[in-house]
Design goal:
heterodimer; B: 114 residues
Chain lengths: 109, 114
Amino acid sequence: GQQLNQSPQSMFIQEGEDVSMNCTSSSIFNTWLWYKQDPGEGPVLLIALYKAGELTSNGRLTAQFGITRKDSFLNISASIPSDVGIYFCAGRSWGKLQFGAGTQVVVTP
Amino acid sequence: NAGVTQTPKFQVLKTGQSMTLQCAQDMNHEYMSWYRQDPGMGLRLIHYSVGAGITDQGEVPNGYNVSRSTTEDFPLRLLSAAPSQTSVYFCASSWGRGRETEAFFGQGTRLTVV
């Protein structure tokens, strides 16, 4: 099956710092999605990307759909304590969604 | 709007027992899906449905059955529970039709098989 590699696995950052994470795949996706999951909750959709090269922002979040359609990145600017959680990328092709293993973000004051 | 509602939130089963995880959405979404989440593995697709009466297998379908008799409901059945099915299960729904995204997830069902 397709392999979706998400990195880093975890990151410890100070409040106010920028955060960057990415996902790469051996196969092409038609859609890239980024989610955040808080403990005990389901994932919440942050950003959806539908076109290669697309750059989309949602507040302090910015994500891009790579031009090769095999990668995507998510940036969080000026992190705040509530940014803590697990961030997942997901790629869709042929109607099925595949998730990365997640990036655990810990924000320290 | 309740969004996506999953029941139960927690369940303990004995090996060999069967049960049904319920999922309901009130947004008239066409697309619904079931995932399982295991530590360090992200979410893996079990089964999905693009509309009432239509279901298909995902990445890890073995040991699970689904049906979609109405737009609102998409139950997941465990036929004979095994310890390997201990996991957190999430149901998701979306509008489908060209802009398919798992836009809404339920809060999850935490299942332990002993």
